[in-house]
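Journal club prep, notes for RB
We'll compare a predicted complex against what the paper describes. Inputs for the glutathione case:
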Amino acid sequence: MQLIGSYLSPFVRRVAISMNVMDQPYEQNSILAFASPDQIRCHNPLIRVPTIVLDDGDVLVESYAILDYLDELAGDSKRLTPANGPERRRVMKDTAVAVGSMDRAQWAVYEYRHRPQEKVHEPWAEHNDSRAIGGLQYLDRLASEVGETGWLSNTDRMSQSDISAVVAYSFATAVRPNLNLANAAPALTSFVARCEALTPFADAVIPE
Ligand SMILES: N[C@@H](CCC(=O)N[C@@H](CS)C(=O)NCC(=O)O)C(=O)O
């Protein structure tokens, strides 16, 4: 299985960490979508990462669809989003907030990265920053109740919401340091430190 995309992308990183947690072997191909579009276009018409090329040549796009397939492959003992019931609803909701926070932080940073300086619209970046903070503070409230060993969606082991929350926090901190998340989300900050020290996370660090 080939995972296309750099760990600079939070969407790629949440897939990589999920595969590490599930013991799913993969080969990472660290292509940057903006720098090398042709190498991705041949697999994905959207020219976005993550893109996964399966061993039989089939291709999956979009992190949600990829993770859904990986959960199915892993089976009930290893899946990261529960298969059904209130547990599934809860993990789906908390994951959606985490992924929405990634989106918002990305839109804020793209405002500076992909527009000429004279066309940057600061209020749009600030709007997205405030929505990213809103999502991360929701996760912070969950983190304030997990103690030293618990998980954000109250599951008995790590779930997709934990992985996506940690990735969203670390990405937002890297690209929008102005958010000052250590102050704005202190419980989440401690939870992230606990998780980033674990091998599945440390094996997929954000490059310098
Ligand atoms: N909804 C997508 C988001 C993927 C995404 O935005 N990827 C970015 C990298 S972080 C990308 O490939 N951008 C290239 C572009 O926008 O042209 C997912 O969950 O996979």
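Talking point for the session: The longest strand covers residues 2-4.
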